[in-house]
Amino acid sequence: MSFLHRATFFTTVAALTDLAFESNGEVAFAGRSNAGKSSAINTLANQRRLAFTSKTPGRTQHLNYFGLGDDKYLVDLPGYGYAKIQRSAKAGWDAFLSGYLQTREQLAGMVLIMDARHPLTELDLQMLDWFADAQKPVHVLLTKADKLTRNDQRATLLKVRSTLNQRIGTNTVSLFSSLKKTGVEEAEAVIAKWLGIELPAKKPVKVPAPKGRPAAHSAKTPGPENAG
């Protein structure tokens, strides 16, 4: 069983002052509203409703912590991209998010969710800029990749990787599909590395012997005892 399958709800945080609990490492999940962040978390955790989307996108303005054991956590950040929030409230929300991303020492890295059909939006780039000051790694999940052709998937992957290399050097990118479970193992490996979790070694795959006539045996060469 994947260590991510152990994820359970731990707490909700509404201010930086609420973070006074023991933490041995955190991985944040961020993404534009409707990019598939909740679906990605649920897919990785192999649960249906660990993370869920508010019926009013853009209204959730807190961090949801999910425990993995040993005081290690996944952190679901608010989705961004909706303008249905009062300007004063949005300013406070932005300050809260940027403060968490830039100053949280226990934050090991960020998984940034982008819709593979519409990656690198202005808000995605703003999130990268916010996080750049932390000098910590980013792993981009290009969700809904199953909706693209193979050629479009390849082109999108190259484009996003090139942009990230220019803006933030420590990054990885992978295609992801909650429907087809694409990219799950890659994301699991990245998160495990960040949190210092050792994954079990994969069992070697047994390749069946080819069917057909057995190979011809060569004549036995006489040994020393038969010589003379």
Outline the structure in words.
The chain is α/β, with parallel strands linked by helices. The protein has a single domain (3-215), classed as Rossmann fold, CATH 3.40.50.300. 29% of the residues lie in helices and 19% in strands. The chain is built from 5 helices and 7 strands. A 7-stranded mixed β-sheet has the order 1-3-4-2-5-6-7, with helices on both faces. A hairpin with a 2-residue loop joins β3 (63-69) and β4. The radius of gyration is 23 Å and the shape is globular. The relative contact order is 0.15. The model is unreliable at 218-228 (pLDDT under 50).
Can you summarize this structure?
The protein is α/β, with parallel strands linked by helices and 228 residues long. Helix content is 29%, strand content 19%.
